Amino acid sequence: MSSQEIEVLVVGAGQAGVAMSAHLTERGIRHVVLERGRIAERWRSERWDSLVANGPAWHDRFPGLEFDDVDPDGFAPKERVADYFVEYAEMIESPIRAGIEVLSVKHNEGSPGFLVETTDGALVARHVVAATGPFQKPVIPAVIPADSGVLQLHSSTYRNPEQLPDGGVLVVGAGSSGVQIADEIRRSGREVYLSVGRHDRPPRRYRGRDFVWWLGVLGKWNMSTPPQGAEHVTIAVSGAGGGKTVDFRSLGRSGITLVGRTNDYRDGTVRFAPDLGQNIAAGDASLLALLDEADAYVERNGLDLPDEPEARAFGADPVCVTDPLLELDLKAAGVETVLWATGFRADYSWLPGGALDAEGRPAHQRGVSAEPGVYFVGLPWQSRRGSSFIWGVWHDASYVADQIQIQITYASYENAALAAEGAAR
Ligand SMILES: Cc1cc2nc3c(=O)[nH]c(=O)nc-3n(C[C@H](O)[C@H](O)[C@H](O)COP(=O)(O)OP(=O)(O)OC[C@H]3O[C@@H](n4cnc5c(N)ncnc54)[C@H](O)[C@@H]3O)c2cc1C
């Protein structure tokens, strides 16, 4: 690829890049999508083997293409999700070039657009859309030193229990990834400790409808900012085993030892905050609040959905909750692995500084950055709660494509009188 000029460069061909390409194609805007790996690479190589989509197939998809071989109320396996995006890209004949990494995007000094360095040479692009993912670089908090003698890995490099050395496992983080991974490792016959922080846990289904439906009709996917005080609260939900409500008490009864938030480590011992009961109670409260809103919605609209009072019954707390462990001597407990399901951060250092704030985070409004010509798509909360999810990114990409089209229209403006004068001269 040598110094060619393109109208729009989309960086990354995950769901965000594919959605962007679909909307640009629809508007007749010339573009290229560069992907350093394969289409939907993160679904293939940065997620565990048994992962299925967190949302049912009728919901977690783009308009215009269904999962033809997955029950609409079922949960597509992660390879099937990746195949779906390949299928979609083929359907729209998306100009994706795989195996090319974008290394840097700089001002094209004295000329419009940006000079883009890639692993396959340089090009010039008038507009650049960063679609490199909401979850890019694994975050492992600096708690346990690297030379502590236990294996430490992040949920993005976990594949299956067989990959781990013999012995027990401490899983830190009880969002969707942590709970599913802890459950899978426990089922493989290992000793498992699960460190549980603040979380929301919606019911998988209530009164015959999946929680994604309830969040939709209650307007919760459209919230524009996280509720105050809950900015960092993770959501524990799972499609595993046909989809069940995440229930910490039953995880405790299955033999997983639940512990509070992981605080620190000294001389081989990890210490936990005494907040396990509080975190579980807050998760219960979030579930009950959603049930209340769902019931009110049913009543207001006179819907004929079956009552489900048992959704409010939580059962007895297991001993690990009533008498929580506050420290764990890893060696004495036979724990050989600490698995961090503690989230991700982003790296946009390859973009011009004007597109970023002082902390290096995207400086943008609904994906339109402060640097004219640079856009984002697929950011968490880009415009609403649904933004980083499959169905949400579709709508944000449409908005960003509109903004690019507006700029192309401005750029093509010619003053008719001046043009006529020029022609007469
Ligand atoms: C464990 C897990 C489960 C999830 N399950 C669901 C779910 O069930 N339903 C749902 O709606 N959402 C789910 N999500 C959230 C979200 O849908 C995914 O994170 C999804 O992968 C985001 O898609 P994306 O296209 O925005 O980013 P990504 O999938 O991260 O794609 C970004 C792409 O950019 C490429 N790239 C990065 N840097 C460069 C570069 N410099 N040059 C070229 N290419 C580059 C990467 O290789 C990658 O292919 C899940 C997230 C996780 C972590």
Automatic annotation (TrEMBL):
Record's keyword annotation contains Oxidoreductase: yes
Recorded GO MF terms: flavin adenine dinucleotide binding; monooxygenase activity
Coiled coil (UniProt feature): none
Keywords, in A-Z order: Oxidoreductase
The keyword Oxidoreductase is assigned to this record: yes
PANTHER family, sorted: FLAVIN-BINDING MONOOXYGENASE-LIKE PROTEIN (AFU_ORTHOLOGUE AFUA_4G09220) (PTHR43539), FLAVIN-CONTAINING MONOOXYGENASE (PTHR43539:SF78)
Name of the protein in question: FAD-dependent oxidoreductase
Provenance organism: Cryobacterium tepidiphilum
